[in-house]
Specification:
Largest interface: C-D, 160 and 159 residues
Number of helices of chain A: 15
Strand content of chain A: 15-25%
Distance between the termini of chain A: 43 Å
Shape of chain A: globular
Helix content of chain A: 40-55%
Structural class of chain A: alpha+beta
Oligomer: homotetramer
Radius of gyration of chain A: 25 Å
Largest sheet of chain A: 10 strands, mixed
Number of strands of chain A: 12
């Protein structure tokens, strides 16, 4: 499909634009000598000519187009601008952070930033939230075809017997990658091997894929004669809601909790222990049960989506992040214990969109800076911060329900008044 | 929590910055006379002072800060820039579109745009994809507390008996909103009423919330004496993976399909019918079954996340969008029938982030322009286009698995070569 | 496969036994003139000869072998004896029962009868339980193959346009059957039509199957040209845990509840409101969430299995019956509100095993006797009773957990002492 | 609640009957000197007097009432008789069986025995089925309450540090029990410890409960100060459909498969490879996906329920057994590969109802006889046989769908003609 050679050196810019606009040339078929900025401009011009749409703002960006076009986004035409706000200070006590941070959120959902910020205030007054992260690791699960039970048994025995060879070969693909274990699943003539890797500060999906490819094509297939049908067999499982991730975890498993006294609930969240506990019971537990949901929470996805965009994470990973369980329990007559639990949050401090201009700044704002001496620490810090931010978001929205503020906040949006309360 | 009045008129800009940086003032507590641009600059300066991070690029944006700060994102500090690419032409035959479009995708995931673009080429050669959308409507489900079975029965009878009054009151909150039906769910002392609304070209979550608030607080609670505990009882269910949405649908229910002959499979997708069908069987069906996933597909979430960001949709709605079923079946000796099915895609052509600078341009590029004469048509067009784009993405990634291209594509990313194949 | 004609009239009993034992003849290939009792005896003798096992007790039964062999169980060899106990009086207030009943339970699980009986005592002291049943109806969902979106749309329109013809034809297959509605589900090239029927006092699975067969083969297939691939397309869905049944219900949807004061909790259940509510929260809610279970309860399946066996229900329907949600909430300082909710309980008062000797007696004991004047009433009564019995079982077992009685009860079993507490 | 002492020695039988019938005495309050047979007779008489029902057949049993009343069923009144038939010979190649067996099935569902028997014939002609069992072990998961993240971390560390002490103490409760591992799950203030035990030939639920009780009350609670809230925290999870069991397995994980050539399909199952594969695809895969079911099969529950009843298993365990995946794939132009997979089948060769009269005979018929030299072998044999029987049932019913035999079989039932085809 590459046909840059078909582009005549003598071709004018206008001719290129016209051929793109007419569909005579595909958008990746531009002269290789064009810079990413120029190629983007030509594509925008062609699109404008073809559709009549004006693409002025898409062409206004300050990111490094060369890098973005090469590493993040082919057929580059510019950038989407997503408004960014900030919440905090968010006071956290974790293993990778102990103190306060300001958290950037990129969102178009009115009230989300204001509401989550309100949660931060309540957490601060309560002395900060406790946060923890467990680095489960990144997974990739190729699927293989056998002839049936007996070959499957032999194949799985081979895998167990050669786990050291597999590990060595896998880890040769990156010095940041360690193979943690291989979880098999087999039925009929299909065998899934769920490889789990420690990938340091990287989210690690690509590292895991490359490592799996290596061990599958260079070791497992040749040695066993068993064919790999797809390098991802959906038992991984990436960017789809799935029980396996809920149970086994994937990426980071994140915990956050806080105890809030009655007066703080009243002053900062306009609510009471009794109301919060009941809303939690009927909405996050019974309602999610009724809906058959894996999200026993109010709106993890909102906070994660906004923080993921700001910090260069993959927004499709909000799918996994939306799963999890909020708990709100009474403590004594007036206080509450509130916690969030996210079993599968795939995030990284390097790779993906983390090196892009605004995203790198957002990570710096969070103090999320990889340190070669402490691999995984930066990603752990990011995970703990996200846990705290999600807790702030849960507290504020749950409180909004109890004071019937949700709809009213949304009604005032058009007038530009920042409000407490957000949609789930 | 609003205390703008506490800000002294004589306060200098530096004093404000300093007080923010020191945490003596919260980020929404700025003088109201400041423009959004100025307020954003002050906040950035304060964050830089507090953290040492440079926030240069976040401050470079061309969107309308006043509008964004008022309607999309409180505590505004600037914008995240997400690289945008384009795929197409994508040839589609639907009820809201019949022809070719170019689809903008905002993403940081290498290979996604190139891979999906390859799928577009195959679809074009196959004569285009058939697409359809069913407008299920937007839902919101308040949860109520009763004393038990008898009050629940009486309450539900009251709802049935007063559905017309409820409808009239709900529809008074917006001329674009129509109440379609109310689905009850009750057990123990909890009753959920899942209101379903037609919301025209809007995604409609806020409209639905406002309408529910009105009927609950002005009609249902006063008349029945039954208290609403939370306006969203998670039986809606928003931004969480859930069976109810898989079964009942939510937002748009989208279908797309194409039949591709053997020579086109070979030339454009480097694959065969036999290999595609087997990968589909072992990965999308058996693998997702093994994983307990509701996503019987390769990577709907990737394409939706990228298209949602480009067009101003709520990225947290990728959670629902990731659910669904891909089918790939052999047709005769060499061809395949391929389809995608997304039961719950909440999207809109107005509201949310659709009015922002780059997003509005992206929608214009797609020809998604609300027409008062045909309410819902623009959103329907967007849904059908997304269905086609997702189909293109599925075909290309599934083909990449069969030709073992996935990992190799990712390995070449660092060198900036656009590639076919993307991660799921 | 029938080859009775191959059996020589002059063949002796011994010859038949020997040929069966040697595998030269299959077990259904016996002379047709043999009575069911004789055929059973011959089969037992052959099995004894072939395996050396003594089948003495299996041959001791008082049921009507002719009927059982013809209507319930081919290759008849006798009967399994399942010990039967009784609980009660169970005091219930429903729409089909208002008073006390004694409930027979056939089980081999020690402590189950004693424990559930303890729950009955607590319910009696509390003034009886409120019970309700909603007759959802029996479902059957054939699956059809179309060529894709357009034929699916046309097919579904045809179904809507011909619903009256379909109804008339379906109802012609039984005077006890009424077609309630048809719920379609379609994706790819598959269409599922979930027919829902009122089947009076019968569980109705066979009636539903026969009715579907008729309308599919005589009306839908000929008129539309769309082929039915399987009369049951698993969207019904029978005897498998499934979300569709949890959401839509199937058979009977059953509710039961009771409020129990502190002194009764203490005296009859050795527990307190506080302990019960906490066990409910951590076990039935959080534990089932952690397990990804659709059974938010302690052990519905135990009570249902025992009652189903005693009353001639299909024990495989315990699968659906095990789904559901128990609620236990505090009421004032010392009392609890407890409820059970079973969305999908397929049961009947006629058909299946209900006419067998011991089962008919058990139904008579419950006062479950079909009345032609009130079709569905007997099945409704049975459902309400089962709801009450399940509630009794939940209360007692949950209480046993709080008083740490569970394991101790099981330890004493070997000594034959009836105990409170049962396993879930 | 025990008040046998309240029974006057001079009390006549009639007086006892009358007091029971009037509800003045509870059914377990009988003089201890009464034999189980006498007590059962008295209870039946009282029930007859109270309700007018005749309980003649319930009183006709040959099982050992003393044993049944003491170990299986309190408030004993007699027995339910469930018709029993036989299928086979079923030819199997496993690790615990290699040869042919006859399998007793106790059922009231017409056509089930005949249909499954047809599957046995096809398997026999195909050379027998390959069967395997993996002994996952029995699980029990107490739930504990902590004060939050930090105590949870300390508690889990304690468990890891003391696993040897825990193991020793647990195994002291039974010489047949071995602790395999402990899988923790924690969020909020709840911690679940899923103990997994090898329980030899026993199903083991009670053994697991007793062992957990011992280690919890004698070791874990005293040493950690963390309270156990319920000995079963539903993360076990027993007799409820649950993802954890699908993923992790519970009891036995069972596999069975067979390859059947075209002529055998045609002669014995009246079907073709093509039709079977399509029915499998649309029903067992797409239909179960549509239904949100964990049973990707036709009717595992039917065969298991019937075999469980015949052999003294707990029928409530059909809930777990109903989960699993059938595969049917084409092999060459005319043959099929068919397999069944059941991840969680809790069964035993000792304990429960296995010692009852008819059940013991049924086990003997299967050659399932515990051998102290080979603990677990008898249970493994039973599991492999059940796997083969389920495979036979799947093949026959799936074939019946393709030849549209299902409904017709049920229509002929009333006339007592054994038929192929059964309901799912």
């Amino acid at each position: 499909m590459k046909s840059q050679t078909a582009v005549e050196a003598t071709e004018t810019r206008d001719e290129i634009v016209r051929s793109l606009a007419r569909g005579e040339r595909r958008f990746h078929q531009l002269p290789t000598e064009l810079s990413a900025d120029e190629a983007g401009a030509i594509r925008r011009e062609a699109l404008e000519e073809a559709t009549g749409a004006a693409l002025e703002h898409i062409g206004r960006y300050s990111l490094d187009a060369e890098r973005a076009a090469g590493r993040n986004c082919e057929n580059f035409i510019g950038a989407a601008q997503i408004p960014m706000g900030v919440i905090g200070p968010l006071h956290l006590h974790g293993e990778h952070i102990d103190g306060a941070v300001f958290v950037p959120l990129a969102t178009t959902e009115a009230a989300l930033v204001a509401s989550t910020n309100r949660g931060c205030a309540a957490i601060r007054e309560a002395g900060g939230a406790t946060v923890r992260v467990e680095d489960v690791g990144m997974t990739r699960a190729p699927v293989f075809r056998t002839s049936g039970i007996e070959q499957t048994q032999a194949f799985l025995r081979w895998i167990v017997d050669h786990d050291e060879e597999i590990r060595v070969l896998a880890e040769r693909t990156s010095r940041y990658l360690r193979l943690l274990d291989i979880r098999p699943m087999a039925y009929g003539t299909s065998v899934f091997l769920r490889f789990r890797f420690d990938t340091g500060d990287a989210m690690g999906m690509n590292m895991a894929t490359i490592a799996c490819d290596r061990v599958v094509t260079e070791l497992i297939e040749p040695a066993t004669g068993v064919a790999c049908i797809a390098l991802s067999g959906n038992y991984c499982v990436d960017k789809k809601p799935a029980e396996i991730n809920f149970h086994e975890g994937r990426g980071k498993r994140v915990f956050a909790e806080v105890v809030i006294e009655g007066p703080i609930l009243k002053r900062y969240l306009k609510t009471t222990s009794r109301d919060l506990v009941e809303a939690q019971y009927r909405k996050n537990l019974l309602g999610s049960i009724a809906a058959g949901s894996k999200g026993f929470n109010a709106h993890y996805a909102n906070i994660l989506a906004a923080a993921f965009l700001a910090t260069g994470q993959d927004p499709a990973h909000v799918v996994e992040g939306s799963m999890g369980v909020t708990c709100i329990e009474s403590r004594g007559p007036e206080a509450v214990y509130a916690s969030v639990y996210m079993p599968a949050m795939p995030i990284g401090a390097v790779g993906g969109g983390t090196a892009l201009a605004t995203q790198r700044e957002a990570l710096a704002l969070l103090g999320v800076v990889p340190d070669p001496e402490r691999p995984g620490h930066a990603a752990g810090r990011l995970a703990e911060i996200l846990g705290g931010a999600v807790l702030a978001g849960e507290l504020s929205l749950m409180a909004a329900f109890t004071s019937h503020d949700l709809a009213r906040a949304h009604e005032r949006l058009g007038r530009g008044a920042p409000e407490n309360g957000s949609g789930d």
